[in-house]
UniProtKB/TrEMBL annotation:
The lineage of its organism: Bacteria, Bacillati, Bacillota, Bacilli, Bacillales. PANTHER family: D-MALATE DEHYDROGENASE [DECARBOXYLATING]. Keywords: Manganese, Metal-binding, NAD, Oxidoreductase. Signal peptide: none annotated. It is an enzyme of class 1 (oxidoreductase). It catalyses: (R)-malate + NAD(+) = pyruvate + CO2 + NADH. Residues 5-345 form the Isopropylmalate dehydrogenase-like domain. Its EC number is 1.1.1.83. Belongs to the isocitrate and isopropylmalate dehydrogenases family. NCBIfam families: PRK08194.1, TTC. It comes from the Bacteria. This is D-malate dehydrogenase (decarboxylating).
């Protein structure tokens, strides 16, 4: 019997609604498989925990997660009561940085049964590999003076090591996919870090002669994701560019409620973390209408990461089958509840497995 220890952090808002649903799906996957077991270790960390303890997770939080096979996270944020930078940096970023989750991967794929806001999009299926540890999201800088003399300096940090490993990851993924990597640059406007980014991209691409590679300025690339998303396979981008491009990816899929994401630890020292793209959606929390697909698809990415790719594929097949049957939540034009969609996915799993 294979056993996986999963640390679970439902977090805030709809995270608490969609996480139990995704766990139900994973339990169903284990039941169907027969030789597989998930051990879920759940942690009540997040904004409510913060209001009680004045911290988003306990002092030894990271060490409690450290030995798990993966971390499964819902969403974090309760903006009415806790400022977003406190909740984000106190939990999410702490785990991403503390566990050296240096790569963020987000797929954007036209799912059967979901209407993209694009008119007549051709079938698209691309992955954005986002550098997740440095780049524009650095803490180097500061503010001095005040009033009209005030100055803010924010330094971007690009290391050869950091850039190279993100690009290597992208090329390796492309080898298993359509064999095409597009790099997001902006070397016409950002004259130091982006020409450096381009140099590293050229160096890495030479190691993969069978993979087609291209560079695009990020503004043009963002536009191409709208006008011809079907032409992309793997996109590699810096922290900021990747953040923006993946939101475009989620948007053209049809709803932010369906997109999954993975924060990958590459050196094997710490677990990787899997979380949907969406946040805690306080505007719909408590109504039972949150779309569980983002969390469930994220569970598929976790299965893939654990080496259970066949099962992962089945989960996505079940999701698409259910959407095709028209069983969907309101954000994608349906009338079903969170639980009804999950029930249908579990039923469908039984028939596709
Ligand atoms: P959000 O993703 O929570 O919501 C944006 C819009 O999409 C809302 O109208 C919401 O109802 C809708 N939506 C999101 N997920 C949905 C789902 N599964 N089903 C149906 N509709 C869904 O982003 P927002 O409103 O900017 O942020 C709310 C809170 O979440 C903030 O505190 C923010 O910091 C946090 N947040 C956390 C993230 C994380 O934990 N990774 C990511 C993004 C935001
Ligand atoms: Mg974002």
């Amino acid at each position: 019997m294979k056993k996986y220890n999963i640390s679970v952090i439902p977090g805030d808002g709809i995270g608490k609604e969609v996480m139990p649903e995704a766990l139900r799906v994973l339990r169903a996957v284990a039941d169907i498989h027969g030789g597989l077991k998930f051990e879920f270790d759940s942690h009540p960390w997040g904004c409510e925990y913060y209001l009680e303890h004045n911290q988003m997770m306990p002092e030894d939080g990271l060490s409690r997660l450290e030995n798990s096979d993966a971390i499964f996270l819902g969403a974090v944020g309760y903006p009415k009561l806790v400022p977003d930078h406190v909740s984000l940096w106190g939990l999410l970023v702490k785990i991403r940085r503390g566990f050296e989750q240096v790569i963020n991967v987000r797929p954007a794929k036209q799912l059967v049964g979901i209407q993209s806001p694009l008119v007549n999009p051709r079938d698209f299926d691309f992955l954005v590999v986002r550098e997740n540890s440095e780049g524009e999201y650095s803490e180097v800088g500061g503010r001095i003076h005040s009033g009209s003399d005030e100055i803010a300096i924010q330094n971007a940090v690009f290391t050869r090591k950091g850039v190279e490993r993100a690009m290597e990851y992208a090329f390796k993924l492309a080898e298993q996919r359509q064999g095409y990597v597009a790099s997001a640059t902006k070397s016409n406007g950002i004259v130091h870090s982006m020409p450096f980014w381009d140099d590293v991209f050229r160096d890495v691409s030479e190691k993969y002669p069978d993979i087609k590679s291209d560079s695009f300025h990020v503004d043009a690339l963002a536009a191409f994701l709208v006008t011809r998303p079907h032409t992309f396979d793997v996109i590699v981008a810096s922290n900021l560019f990747g953040d923006i491009l993946t939101d475009v990816g989620a948007a053209i899929m049809g709803s932010i409620g369906i997109g999954p994401a993975a924060n990958i630890n590459l050196n094997g020292k710490y677990p990787s973390m899997f979380e949907p793209v969406h946040g805690s959606a306080p505007d719909i929390y408590g109504q039972g209408i949150a779309n569980p697909v983002g969390q469930i698809w994220t569970g598929k990415m976790m299965l893939d990461h654990l080496g259970e790719t066949e099962l992962g594929d089945k989960v996505l097949e079940a999701i698409e089958g259910v959407l095709e049957d028209g069983i969907k939540t309101a954000d994608i034009g349906g009338t079903s509840s969170t639980t009804e969609v999950t029930d249908a996915i579990i039923e469908k799993l039984k028939s596709v497995c």
